[in-house]
UniProtKB/TrEMBL annotation:
Coiled coil: none annotated. GO terms for biological process: transcription by RNA polymerase III. It comes from Pisum sativum (Garden pea). This is Transcription factor TFIIIC triple barrel domain-containing protein. Signal peptide: none annotated. Residues 11-119 form the Transcription factor TFIIIC triple barrel domain. InterPro entries: GTF3C6-like, TFIIIC_triple_barrel. One of its GO terms (cellular component) is transcription factor TFIIIC complex.
Amino acid sequence: MEENATPHDHEDQDEFVLLDLDSVYGLIDIPPNANYVLRGLDTLNPVLIIEDKFKLIGEYEETIGTCIAFEEKDTPVVHQETGPSEANLFSGRTLIGSSQPPTKQVKPVCQLHKVLKFKLSPDSEIQSRTMEEDN
């Protein structure tokens, strides 16, 4: 073993994970401000409990290629007078258009290496209701 080797040859880095709820979309209604608990991120199958009603089981999938998460912000529409004009009272100034809707500005936030896909757990409330309706 090399004398300069340390137990961790890599620097501690933040790791970002995308929570994928596509498989439960339409099966359960998740309010925008729903309370949730996410447990076991360091396990093979993390658990997501939403509103103390729905239990979801996750499974990690490695991303292929480059996967980047973006942030979207509204920005005002800016007009700038570029040419000289005798009739232009605002020459050389920047004007913000109040009558036009804001545009979207998108910027990268992080690079993802894993996606955490969730499915309903067999003991979730939604599964119980579905089975009762079938009987």
